[in-house]
Specification:
Blueprint lengths: L2 H5 L2 H24 L2 H22 L5 H18 L5 H17 L3 H8 L2 H9 L6 H11 L5 H7 L4 H14 L10 H23 L3 E2 L5 H17 L4 H14 L25 H19 L6 H14 L8 H13 L4 H15 L1 H11 L10 H13 L2 H14 L1 E2 H15 L1
Length: about 425
Amino acid sequence: MSEAGTAQDPQEVVQRVWRDESARLVGALTRMTRDLALAEDLAQDALVAALQQWPESGVPDNPAAWLMQTAKRRAVDQFRRADTLRRRTTELGHALEREEVEMPDLDTFVDHIEDDVLRLIFLTCHPALSPESRAALTLRLVGGLTVPEIARAFLTKDATVGQRISRAKTSLEGESIELPVGPERERRLDDVTGVLYLIFNEGYAATTGDDWTRPDLCAEAIRVTRMLVDVAPGEPDVHGLLALMELQASRLHARTDAEGRPVLLEDQDRSRWDELMIRRGLAALDRAMTVSSSGRPFGPYVVQAQIAACHARATTAEETDWRGIADWYDLLAHLGDNPVVEVNRAVAHGRAFGPEAGLAVLDAVAGHRSLTGSHLAPAVRGDLLERAGHRAEAAAAFTEAAGLTGNAGERALLLQRAAACAT
């Protein structure tokens, strides 16, 4: 143990390491055992062992490697106890023992397991699962979200999400974790990109909790998306998704003030935007358009990246090309029936053509069932009404939105805006 290791609070280290490494751990164990449910159990067992042992023995020099080695040893024990799997025990035991000799920690194991998270995502996005189950299972295993957080993101009950995850694990028993190829990979790409963006969005604007953002989730989504670009370099929307994430993540530091309170886009200090991420995002967007020009049509992520690029190129809020953004949102609306897109389109039209134009767009989607229980529509309505001078109505809309959000920082901001309109 290092002196720095023993000085750390074991409980905090366990939580941090689990948050950062759980997806890699489950992915690697799934590849080794060929059993997703067993892999998650082994990872959880290693976590429990850490909670029990680290407070007494101290934090290891490489906590992530400790978790991996503990889980691997328990995998060997698990198979040794199963008489019917004696042959598999021998093969797996020798393989894991060789890995323990050749790869004593994760520092040297990284190259081997780096794509295990991507393998895990392709597995959890298996076509045998329903779209809801794919998203829930991936957010749980890869994004590290709790069941209540996932339920909040999908506006459903905790029990429903728990049942989806349980059934999904059962359905995947015996499925290979190897990356699919050819048409099978193409069929899963839409689901994989959709889930990655869900994970990113949960980090960009947390649905619950005290923190307005969760940068660790954004970073993990970007990391895996970069890997996906290498797997599918000929897909414009994969490049578009990476561009969108990079451009939005460039604003993370400016989205909260020194006290952690949310800061609206137009009020952000743009000098705090990450110029390197903006350059990366714009470069990824250029690649998306280049690939698209060769005959592959682009989809919604490229369009959303174009919208994000409009914001990134504006050095001040007043310089924002809202008419260009409104045009891109119009195109995005034609690509699919998405009420959340319409809510954001209402914002763009409100800025480009006046608040009444934005309210007209919002009214057209009002009452859509997928927006029931969401704070998005009333929050945007409050903003448009305030800009139109209807301050009392705006205050009521902001108050309604505050009652629907599960994020403490966002709730405080909405209530603040409601109070400002009321006075």
